[in-house]
């Protein structure tokens, strides 16, 4: 796998630092606004339309700020060598003549962190087997909101033509693809689906049962 150059690493580092500073400034400004006054005056509050909605006005402002300076996901910016990210509860074993190779297989030991890195665009493909829905629910939301695609981890009978449906959260088998930009003759979604089918062609079916089912 080709190494990332020092200049590119410095650019990524500077981008991440600046993004963190800007998001932090927004959060601090929102906190200061709620604390205005001398401690005795009542502050105006706005009740959310849905009491179960976890997204606040501050969250929305932070998202707008981040989207104003997005990561370049255009076809010209995509690396030639894909980085494949996976985590499995057990050793899969031999490849059985499946063919196809990846340039890097990595894991952080946490499904949420794996998903976050995929949402950032730091990793291209995430394949997970054996974890539970509470391990991946938040990360799947983050990846989908970032423009990623999350679907079933096990390959269907016909990986080249089977419909690519949204992931079943309780399936314990997951496949995620990072956000992508369109290219000549292919939309972003088509590119993601092509990546899904290429993964399905190369992986073996796993079986992670649920107790009591």
Automatic annotation (TrEMBL):
Signal peptide: none annotated. Keywords: Magnesium, Metal-binding. It holds the Pfam family Inositol_P. Gene3D superfamilies: 3.40.190.80. Its cofactor is Mg(2+). InterPro entries: Inositol_monophosphatase-like, Inositol_monophosphatase_CS. Coiled coil: none annotated. GO terms for molecular function: inositol monophosphate 1-phosphatase activity; metal ion binding. It comes from the Eukaryota. It comes from Venturia inaequalis (Apple scab fungus). GO terms for biological process: inositol metabolic process; phosphatidylinositol phosphate biosynthetic process; signal transduction. Mg(2+) binds at residue 135. Belongs to the inositol monophosphatase superfamily. This is Inositol-phosphate phosphatase.
